[in-house]
């Protein structure tokens, strides 16, 4: 069914352009799934948005700054945080391999780390690069547990064998690999011990194990007893069926439905493809349960903004700097700024995005986007085509029908209930 | 809300005089609206309804370093680097004292306007931030529930959207009901861009038969925006609205919550003073996940909390409407009794809940948990949190607690005298 292709593209990426949707309909559902999860060749679009080279963190260059140098270093960090934020948005907009970019955005919300505490844009970008370079979910998990941004975010660098700090260990179990309730408080404490001794090297943007601070003793975790380390504890968790099911449920939650649980059969099919995330997504997209989730997911603010920019052919770097700043501040107002999830639990979902305050900010952002264009005459049907909306409800059509201003038409399309839900 | 209903609402809430309505409520600027409301007849004190302000501290506030058992040797030996010396604390009695940063709250205590409920928790404590906060907000410790306890009250009284308001960008589960949902209001104010007319927004917010649920909720957010726009415009902007970034950041893992508590409470104050009919306000302060180097960061947070609460309560005491306000401050759990080696504390269990306001009968409620009779290193709760929220439902909102606490028959605490 052609409608299924539209649903697939909306969920797998940030929002298809009309041309992409037409091509995918031509190719058919199966072929489109294959192209999405195994894109061929280098990403030509993304090549025009190379990852910025930030150089050394100012605090790595000068670990003992005077208060004046500190102020300057903080200013540089802020500028660089803005730089990587704008770069990532640009990359999401221009990438042809949309499913790859969307998956990276998913992992950012999963291993949710925020620059508001980490402070160093170098560490945030290093984590981003690490997520991007990972071969599969197992590789991601082994990298993340010693990733300097994540370790710092969850106080792992202060975790010593004398009295372990549980922050990282608990979230590894609850939020990253097993899911709430799949472990005991005793496991939390023991995982905390296994993760002792890691320190941050700001200069190299890496973490290193200080053997003097690492607890070498035996630990009992989920019934297994050995001298667990960061890597071996992650390996233990990756081997548990609870972990495989948990990751499948998280993918379902973000790609299919945040309100109904993943059906057992779908979960089992996805689990069969673990640890390859794209293969798990292929299993999801080709499962009959996927199509039944149509019209249930609320676009997250970044999905909404990036999708809109793609469809309107706007590139962040070509938007006046002041307007782009307003757009990114607007994302903050909606509750979703790249590199700054609101909590270690990642982004919210569903109806919680649909607040009156959110409606107000979206109106303002949509107006700013439309103001960047000089469209000719448009009909409501044209707007539906540009924004890849299947059909207007009578309500929205009645609103659009009487609007003569093309920019206002586009703005209303972008904030319409039909556009917000996939 | 259509224009006519909107005007009726503004008149009924005492915000607008007849003249203002005649001039067209939608067209009146902020300054003129506020001018109008100050000239209007003073609110009738017999019509004042009680209001509750729920302050959520996200991250798990360290209760033992907030209400400090300074006379207990076990406290000092469990956390030598983190403990406050007896001479530092603001003494409440011969056993307990407030953190030195809570000077304003100490003043309220002395004035008998601060109630402290000790050892609040629930059976089988969960140390996950997210699950535990869900438990507090849904008031359902046994199994996950899809609705918050305030949301269920909204359902039960068939409340209009302005009955419960949050000043956060994302709605807390607390205010989510099955059919009703509280409103989220931007603390930067609620104004429409000048290029779009309220009529157009209202048309976009109209419900459509058989629309998918999320799409219907997206439409409803526009209708709510107009309603709340009127409510907030009527309430006016707070005199000071510092950005979240203006308050010092705390090096804690974020587990949710806003930072600009002062700004949120300033908006609440304005809403209350001009007679906005909201009965439940939800505000928050985040950053209490103090696993490392806790003392300095925790003090920054407590100071923010103290200043925001103290000035709010003082301001509330000045008006009839304000004197009906009860503030409740809670967090998802306390911290472990023993400090970790990072000079912080890990997730624990029970903690104190603050209740304050002109109507509150100050003093201790419940019992301080023992520091030696522990549950695997954690405090044993002595008060069920549903007793606190049940009291709020019963004594402040005039509702039957059991109806909204899923049948829980609690013990009401006499911190607010019933009318």
Oligomeric state, counting identical vs distinct chains: heterodimer
The tally of helices of chain A reads: 24
* Secondary structure category of chain A: mainly alpha
Globally, the shape of chain B reads globular
| Integer-rounded radius of gyration of chain B | 22 Å
Report the end-to-end length of chain B measured between terminal Cα atoms. 33 Å
Report the major sheet of chain B. Answer: 9 strands, mixed
Could you characterize what this model shows?
- The complex is a heterodimer of chains A (422) and B (419).
- With 422 residues, chain A is mostly helical.
- Chain A has 24 helices and four strands.
- Helices cover 57% and strands 3% of the residues of chain A.
- In chain A, the strands form two sheets. A two-stranded antiparallel ribbon of chain A has the order 1-2. Chain A has a two-stranded antiparallel ribbon with strand order 3-4.
- Chain A is globular and about 70 Å long.
- Chain B is an alpha/beta fold.
- In chain B, strands 1, 5, 6, 7, 8, 9, 10, 11 and 12 form a nine-stranded mixed β-sheet that branches.
- The longest helix of chain B is centred in the middle third of the chain and has 23 residues, at 213-235.
- Chain B starts with a helix and ends in a 15-residue tail after the last helix.
- Mean pLDDT of chain B is 84; it is low at 1-46 and 238-246.
- Chains A and B meet through α11, α20, α22, α23 and α24 of A and α6, β7, α8 and α9 of B.
- Chain A: Residues 51-75 are annotated as: Disordered.
């Amino acid at each position: 069914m052609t409608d299924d292709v539209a649903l697939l593209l909306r969920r797998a990426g940030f929002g298809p352009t009309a041309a992409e949707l037409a091509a995918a309909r031509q190719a058919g559902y199966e072929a489109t799934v294959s192209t999405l999860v195994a894109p061929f060749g280098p990403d030509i679009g993304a090549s025009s948005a190379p990852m910025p080279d930030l150089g050394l963190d100012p605090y790595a260059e000068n670990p003992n700054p005077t208060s004046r140098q500190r102020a300057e270093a903080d200013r540089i960090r802020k500028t660089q945080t803005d730089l990587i934020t704008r770069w990532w948005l640009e990359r999401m907009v221009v990438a042809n391999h949309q499913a790859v970019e969307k998956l990276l955005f998913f992992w950012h919300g999963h291993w949710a780390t925020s620059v508001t505490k980490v402070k160093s844009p170098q560490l945030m970008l290093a984590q981003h690069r690490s997520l991007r370079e990972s071969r599969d979910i197992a590789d991601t998990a082994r990298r993340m547990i010693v990733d300097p941004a994540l370790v710092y975010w969850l106080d792992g660098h202060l975790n010593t064998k004398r009295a372990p700090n549980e922050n990282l260990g608990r979230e590894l179990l609850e939020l990253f690999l097993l899911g709430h309730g799949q472990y005991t408080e005793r496991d939390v404490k023991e995982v905390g011990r296994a993760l002792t001794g890691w320190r941050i090297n700001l200069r190299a943007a890496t973490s290193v194990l200080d053997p003097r601070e690492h607890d070498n003793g035996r630990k009992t975790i989920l019934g297994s007893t050995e001298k667990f380390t960061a890597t071996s504890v992650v390996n233990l968790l990756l081997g548990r069926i609870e972990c495989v099911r948990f990751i499948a449920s998280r993918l379902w939650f973000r790609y299919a439905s945040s309100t109904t649980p993943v059906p057992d059969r779908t979960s089992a099919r996805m689990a069969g493809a673990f640890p390859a995330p794209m293969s798990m997504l292929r299993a999801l997209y080709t499962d009959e349960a996927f199509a039944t989730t149509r019209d249930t997911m609320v676009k997250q603010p970044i999905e909404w903004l990036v999708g809109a920019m793609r469809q309107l052919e706007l590139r962040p770097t070509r938007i006046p700097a002041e307007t782009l700043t307003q757009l990114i501040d607007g994302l903050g107002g909606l509750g979703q700024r790249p590199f700054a999830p609101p909590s270690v639990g990642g982004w919210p979902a569903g109806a919680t995005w649909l607040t009156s305050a959110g409606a107000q900010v979206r109106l303002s952002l949509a107006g700013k986007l439309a103001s960047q264009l000089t469209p000719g005459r448009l009909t409501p049907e044209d707007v539906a085509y540009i924004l890849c909306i299947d059909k207007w409800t009578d309500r929205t059509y009645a609103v659009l029908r009487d609007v003569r201003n093309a920019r206002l038409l586009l703005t209303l399309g972008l904030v319409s209930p039909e556009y917000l839900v996939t | 809300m259509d224009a006519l209903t909107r005007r009726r609402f503004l008149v009924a809430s005492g915000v607008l005089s007849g003249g203002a309505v005649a001039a067209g409520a939608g067209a009146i600027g902020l300054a003129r609206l506020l001018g109008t409301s100050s000239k209007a007849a003073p609110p009738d004190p017999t019509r004042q309804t009680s209001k509750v302000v729920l302050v959520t501290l996200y991250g798990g506030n360290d209760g033992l370093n907030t209400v400090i058992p300074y006379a207990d040797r076990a406290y000092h030996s469990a956390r030598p680097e983190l403990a406050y010396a007896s001479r530092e604390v603001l003494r409440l009695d011969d056993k307990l004292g407030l953190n030195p940063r809570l000077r304003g709250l100490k003043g309220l205590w002395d004035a008998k306007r601060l109630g402290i409920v000790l050892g609040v928790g629930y059976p089988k404590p969960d140390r996950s931030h997210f699950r535990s906060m869900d438990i507090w907000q849904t008031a359902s410790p046994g199994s996950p529930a899809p609705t918050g306890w305030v949301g269920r009250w909204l359902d039960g009284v068939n409340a209009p959207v302005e009955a419960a308001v949050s000043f956060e960008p994302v709605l807390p589960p607390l205010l989510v009901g099955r059919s009703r949902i509280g409103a989220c209001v931007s603390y930067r104010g609620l104004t429409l861009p000048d290029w779009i007319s309220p009529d157009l927004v209202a048309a976009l917010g109209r419900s459509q038969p058989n629309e998918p649920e999320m799409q219907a909720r997206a439409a409803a957010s526009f209708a709510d925006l107009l309603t709340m726009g009127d409510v907030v415009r009527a309430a006016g902007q707070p005199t000071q609205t510092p950005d979240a970034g203006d308050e010092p950041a705390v090096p804690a893992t974020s587990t949710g919550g806003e930072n600009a508590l002062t700004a949120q409470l300033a908006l609440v104050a304005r809403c209350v003073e001009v007679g906005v009919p909201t009965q439940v306000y939800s505000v928050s302060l985040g950053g209490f996940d103090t696993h490392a180097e806790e003392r300095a960061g925790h003090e920054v947070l407590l100071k923010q909390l103290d200043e925001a609460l103290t000035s709010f309560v003082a301001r509330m005491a000045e008006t009839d409407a304000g004197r009906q306000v009860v503030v409740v401050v809670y967090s998802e759990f306390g911290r472990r009794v023993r400090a970790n080696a990072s000079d912080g504390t890990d997730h624990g269990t029970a903690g104190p809940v603050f209740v304050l306001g002109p109507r509150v009968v100050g003093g201790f409620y419940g019992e301080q948990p023992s520091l030696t009779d522990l549950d695997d290193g954690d405090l044993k709760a002595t008060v069920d949190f549903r007793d606190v929220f049940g009291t709020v439902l019963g004594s402040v909102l005039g509702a039957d607690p059991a109806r909204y606490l899923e049948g829980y028959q609690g013990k009401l605490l006499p911190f607010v005298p019933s009318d």
